[in-house]
Design a protein that fits this description.
alpha/beta
């Protein structure tokens, strides 16, 4: 309990005060106070000038919803005490007509949800206090402007008059237009004191008319209304959608921060800004920020005016007026504070400040979002600077974010028709068809199209569309605008503030220097240069920086779980090795069946009515399969290679369109009828649960025999040439040990024959996929035969959850949106259900075979939270697609480091 | 250890002696000695005349296979001791030229596998001992006939010269034909001593020629060869197939019985027979049997000569010569023995005997197979006779067999064209298309046809065809012939020994009194009267006997688990109640959607693009659904009714043929294109795992709302009329508690609305199916919302085993045949895998909700071994199709009684 608090020790503490160089809370209390509240407390404790305030805890939010949107009775006294605290520190009085205390009421969740929840500013103003403010500030216009803003915001947010859809009209905007018209002015700033007073009057009348209530003059009533609105906005539609996209639990709740107002719009000796302690795009160790003179903080974030750089170290034209130039003293203070903050937090900070009549106030500090490249550079630099150690550096990088670096970028040699240039707000290369509305972006993307969302500026309503788009282009707003911040968070390419383009929402097009881009036209965005290009520009694989290598080296140092790759070709194998794969965890042999002439032999086999015919066709496939394995073994240079025997049902190898069937008939020299008959006989109602996997090899042992022979002949041949090989032959879709026993005996028979024939000794293993629930349930029996397990979590998810990946589109997105599923279980492993079977499989398997090697080869093997789960479940390795290998390496290292921490 | 045994106490005992009124073994040792061996020992102990012998244990068979077809060294001495024992008791010497001991070598598994394994008779004969036998028997012809039979049998069985397929020629039959031709005779019995000697010579030459070895003259060598052949026949193809059909574990092994020969073919004072202590078809308490004078035992079973009844109490013509008439003394002894045996075993016995020169020898006794009707009658009679108690009576009835009684029989009023009459060998009514070969029966049945297999006589090779057929008709053989015994075991209708029909395998037809029945023609068989009818005769529901009622009453007395039914209509509900169902465990609402006009409304709903359209269509369905529930609730008179909400994917309600789509388009007044488009949009790759179950109700809550309203309106309406109702609303396909919560809230909302509106109090429950593996894995969470669980083991099996029931045909039969699966998991619950999830579901569910009601509604609910599992798993009830309700009641009673025994 903080000293001097009036709160009884028996009562639950819901209110935490800060300001005046001390605070009840601290940075570590983020879960309780939200990110903003915890950091305001921390800054207060550090002696940094923060407008005094208090935080109502996130716990209160949960209690509020549990109590059916009511508050526990002790809250009232605690809030009163909080206001008294502000009054004391700021030397003003809440509701006073002479020296009024005005406050802001803001949300603050554990994790920042920019723009998703409601805020009320200038609270405490009424017909009387406005006069006090006017006198105190010596600026009547300022006071009345603040008042009219407050009434509007209160009406919109607390009284719910904000338009719900685009066709609705905001009553306040309507009045604003009327008054401006009557005054004969165009801009808000041109309105005089009388017009502002008129606005307040008419706003209040509109409230009375629409809601049947008077605008509350009582500041306490205003305060309770605003608190309620902020808590309520936690469950607003937009906020829920944002949490679903960003996988934030719905039961975390938000805190509410009530804080004394300070004003950046009190004149030219005032201003407001946002800055990063290092460059968030590149990671360069340079103080980097933007500010607006005579403006409120919201103006910077909303991107309504394009701000100026705080100093010249930011890429800027020499003629721009920096904060350093204009207000050197305030800038100096800011510099000292940012250094103090970075040293304290030992991480790059994203800060907000306001200068009120020359005095600097800090409004917020938080860990700054950054691009993957910046994250790597900052981590490596900070280790060099001895701010953090290697372990911390490894834990600092978001594995998901690495993806940005591993995917193609524009080919510098490609021809580019650059039509415009904006701010490089979020790096990456994106090409897509132009769309001009967020909902259209979502609809087009749902149809499988790639789109670029183009907006004058973005707003929280556009989140869904931004998520669906390949990239975002805006005409207004800076590097810290909504579009830029959100895009960076999503790891999505964004070019912001591209003022030269003229967007017409009505025509669904933009025009720039005579070029018109209409809806559906292809454009390309380079988020690292800010270039906007016509058409679809070619991409190449990016070169990885030294920082990447350094961090990955550290990761490997602390990592204990292996990382393999899923690769079916020598080329993929090579890419994966370059990314650090330590073997192949899944080589799918069926992909090899489609290449060139092979499909003909495969079809010949399928069409055969007898064993002899099938064997003849398989004999043609043998040398080709063998060649594939030679290539892959060579590429993997002695690393283990897990080869899965034929898995898909045979109908996947025959054409389903009549024209192609005719072609096949001609090619094979049989009648179309025979082809059709065969294809019909292969039809399955539920192919996922049909005649596939080892069920093929059991009914047609000649297929398994051919594949085992191809693998072992390739292995023996290379071994003879001195190339080390470690084949691990994997039987798919085993649900009962008898199936594996059947196939294992056949494989071993062929393997021993080949070894004997070639007089070479090749060590090989025989194991199985665990992808049917029953396999996990009977893993102890299966492990008596299997030398290794590989959890095929794609199919295991489908069967455990009764969910066909191909068919889930009709309900899965809705499930995630409704919160029935926390995430798409095909992307993020369902640890509760499917995970139980993985854990059971490992445990039971090792109960029968102590040294059983266990891995995972579903797509979850490259998803960080799933990798962490695999570590906890005791897997020996994860296997993922080549491009995700670094992500898995990093995630595995983090899992190991976190695991150590738990001990 | 038996007294006087030479076997060291340190050695494993593999040989158990019997005969001479004492034995090493006893009846309880059936698992070790096989059924035959254990009962021979028991009879010896009872002082019944049994030819002396010894049994090599089933354990030896297992060891033999484990040792790669070798024997442990101690076996030799034990067998020597066994032969010495026989010599001593029978007063003959193995290999003696004067007084030779001849033995039979027979298989004897735990469970009888008639004709499936090999037998060698007359072993011990050679060129020298045959002379001793001739002198001793005073019948040179008999001795040489025995010798030539032995050489042939030894060649066939031990030296493997038996033809493997129908086109192969038996070398011995060929020689036999030659010699008969040379002698100018037609029948075997017409051959004289010289010809028989010639046969032996030529048979031996054939063996030398074909196998390159001499026929072994050494009796010990003969004996080891025969033992090896019997053990080898355990893994013969036929035996494996039989075990698969009859679900006999492959690792049980067979025992080998070596026993002194006795001869029923030593002249007219000798004979052999088979009898039942009660009538195996009706259960009537009358000694019932058949014999052949001057014949070997195999002749009766093989059905080569049609035997005579042992007495006149068997249905027989007065002019038939019974055993009682011809050999009254032997018959009297037999009568005393059968009574002794039945009193001892307290069950109906199936006995084999041989009379050698007037002396009666018992060769076998075992529990007799019987029809379901006989089983009931015997059980009830034996309780009356105080031979057994009610509990034993209940345990005596095979629940599976009850099926025979519960299925339709021929309508006595139906017109019948009786074309022939045979023996009523196995009861039941069967109609099918005539086929004349077992493999054709299998092929036709695989095509979904119903067939009657017609054979002159059946042999073990025909097992597969018999199993596939609806019924079996033979021209030769009695009530104890192969066809009759096997058919009764299968619970399949059989008319045997129908001598008047003339079968031509070549023409694939039979002719009787001018009527010709060709392959494919329909015939009907009445297994209870022996009638053979032309065409397909109408059937009716059989009336159940008083014995049935008595046994079911006893069953219910000892049963603790409930039995419900799966019924979707008032009619089915009534049938089930008549069979004793205690509620409905599964009422599938989708079946109601297809009736009459409803399908139109359903399709209208599916075609609607918006909520309003769907609601309009659903409003049409509401009164119809409500009517269904009124009917079902009324039929169930206050018993609980579990109603499952709509489950199948919507595409099941639209036509897939263009013609019907056109019809639908016309009917609905929309374009064919629109219909096609909609149907295409509904297509799913794996509908089993697609948009169905609660996923429909979550995306289209209006469907759930309509169904909940229909259920509750029906319930409230009836309640008002004074009818008691217990609706249990079941949400299908839940895999995550969030899904259930969503639907439960909606259902409760509608229910409370309806209750309020109608001002009636109806108690209802909301629960869920557990049919997705994840539901079982997270049952503790689901039980927080669900008031009851119903395990849908059909789908649970499909998902847990990754096995689509519709598509498994390509490999499932092979899996069962290969022994990979012990049984079809859709018929017999896979206790190892799926069962784990059921147990987990119950346990976890009850951990969250102590009084959670758990049931099963998959088809396993009527399968006895699965019912027993459900009892052990702690389910409150099983639910099955109406006709299986009595089976489930009996199985549940047996489970409870066995459960008690385990304590």
């Amino acid at each position: 309990m903080a000293k001097g608090s009036k709160v009884s020790t028996k009562e639950k503490k819901y209110v935490y005060k800060f300001g005046g160089n001390k605070a009840d809370g601290k940075a570590e209390m983020k879960n309780l106070l939200g990110g903003k509240g915890a950091n305001l407390a921390e800054m207060s404790n550090l002696g940094i000038p923060v407008p005094a305030g208090f935080t109502i805890t996130t716990e209160m939010c949960t209690v509020y919803y549990k109590m059916n949107r009511n508050y526990p009775k002790e809250l009232n006294a605690q809030i009163k005490a909080g206001i008294e605290h502000i009054e004391k520190v700021m030397g003003a009085e809440f509701g006073s007509e002479d020296n009024p205390l005005l406050v802001s009421v803001r949300s603050g969740a554990r994790i920042s949800m920019p723009g998703m929840m409601d805020t009320v500013l200038n609270l405490g103003l009424n017909d009387k206090t406005v006069l006090g403010l006017a006198e105190q500030s010596g600026n009547e216009r300022f006071a009345w402007d603040a008042y009219r803003r407050f009434v509007q915001m209160y009406g919109d947010v607390v009284l719910d008059l904000k338009p719900k859809s685009k066709t609705d009209i905001d009553p306040f905007e309507e009045i604003m237009d009327e008054v401006k018209k009557e005054a004969g002015v165009k801009l808000d700033v041109e309105l005089g004191v009388d017009e502002l007073k008129e606005l307040v009057k008419r706003f209040k009348a509109a409230i009375k008319e629409r809601k049947g209530i008077d605008f509350p003059e009582d500041p306490w009533k205003q305060l309770w209304g605003a608190i309620e609105a902020v808590f309520g906005s936690w469950n607003g539609e937009r906020a829920i959608k944002y949490r679903n996209i960003n996988k934030i639990p719905h039961d975390w709740g938000t805190a509410v921060n009530v804080q004394s107002m300070v004003y950046g719009n009190m004149g030219d000796d005032s201003g407001t800004g946002v800055a990063f302690t290092r460059n968030p795009a590149t990671g360069e160790r340079k103080f980097y920020g933007e500010y607006l003179i005579n403006a409120q903080g919201e103006d910077v974030v909303a991107g309504i005016r394009t701000p100026e750089p705080v100093n010249h170290s930011t890429k800027s034209s020499p003629d721009q007026q920096t904060l350093e130039d204009i207000m050197p003293a305030a800038y100096k203070t800011l510099e000292n504070i940012y250094k103090k903050l970075e040293n304290h937090y030992r991480d790059m900070q994203d800060i907000e400040f306001t200068i009120q009549k020359g005095k600097l106030w800090m409004l917020q500090t938080r860990t700054g979002k950054r691009t993957a490249a910046a994250a790597l550079r900052i981590a490596v630099d900070m280790v060099k600077e001895k701010l953090i150690d290697e372990r911390t550096a490894v834990l600092r990088i978001s594995p998901d974010q690495l993806d940005q670096l591993l995917h193609p970028m524009f080919d510098p040699k490609a021809e580019k028709e650059v039509i415009a240039k904006g701010l490089p707000a979020s790096p990456g290369a994106a090409a897509g068809q132009a769309v001009f509305h967020a909902d259209e972006a979502e609809a087009w993307a749902a149809d499988g199209k790639k789109v670029i969302l183009i907006r004058i500026e973005t707003s929280p309503e556009d989140i869904g569309g931004m998520n669906a788009a390949q990239g975002i282009l805006t005409a207004r707003g800076g590097m810290t605008s909504h579009a830029a911040v959100v895009a960076r968070g999503m790891g999505k390419c964004c070019v912001a503030g591209c003022g030269e383009i003229n967007i017409s929402y009505k025509e669904k097009q933009f025009e720039v220097k005579g070029t018109v881009i209409k809806e559906g036209d292809w454009i390309s965005l380079d988020g690292s240069t800010g270039q906007v290009m016509k058409g679809q520009v070619a991409t190449i694989q990016p070169e990885l920086s030294g920082n990447f290598g350094t961090v990955m080296k550290w990761a490997d140092k602390y990592r204990t779980m292996g990382v393999r790759t899923n690769a079916d070709t020598p080329k993929d194998s090579q890419v994966a090795r370059d990314f650090g794969a330590e073997g192949i965890g899944l080589c799918r042999t069926e992909h090899m069946f489609f290449e060139g002439d092979r499909i003909k032999a495969v079809r010949e086999m399928i069409l055969s009515d007898d064993l002899a015919g099938r064997k003849k066709a398989l004999a043609k496939l043998l040398p080709m399969q063998k060649g594939d394995f030679v290539g892959i073994f060579k590429a993997m240079k002695g690393l283990p290679v897990t080869i899965r025997l034929l898995d898909p049902p045979l109908h996947e190898f025959v054409p389903h369109e009549e024209a192609q069937q005719k072609e096949m008939a001609d090619e094979m020299g049989v009648s179309l009828d025979k082809i059709k008959q065969k294809i019909a006989s292969l039809h399955e109602f539920n192919p996922m649960l049909g005649h596939r996997g080892c069920r093929l090899g059991i009914i047609f042992p000649e297929i398994t025999e051919m594949q085992a022979r191809a693998i072992m002949e390739a292995a023996c041949e290379l071994k003879k040439q001195g190339v080390n090989v470690k084949p691990e032959i994997m039987v798919p879709l085993v649900g009962e040990v008898g199936e594996l026993k059947n196939q294992e005996q056949l494989i071993r028979k062929v393997a021993e024959e080949t070894i004997k024939k070639t007089k070479t000794k090749v060590a090989y293993m025989v194991g199985t996929m665990i992808e049917i629930p029953r396999a996990a349930l009977t893993a102890d029996k299966i492990a008596e035969v299997a030398e290794f397990f590989s959890f095929g979590t794609n199919d295991l998810t489908q069967m455990t959850m009764g969910l066909s990946r191909d068919d889930a589109g009709k309900f899965l997105p809705a499930y995630v949106e409704m919160g029935i599923y926390k995430a798409d279980p095909f992307q993020v492993l369902d640890q509760t259900g499917v995970g139980q079977l993985v854990e059971m499989g490992v445990k039971k398997g090792r109960s029968a075979r102590k040294d059983l090697k266990c891995g995972i080869c579903g797509e979850h093997g490259g998803e960080p939270s799933s990798v962490e789960f695999c570590y906890r479940a005791g897997l020996n390795y994860v296997s993922c697609s080549p491009y995700r290998v670094p992500i898995a390496r990093l995630a595995a290292a983090q899992a190991a480091l976190k695991g150590k921490k738990q001990k």
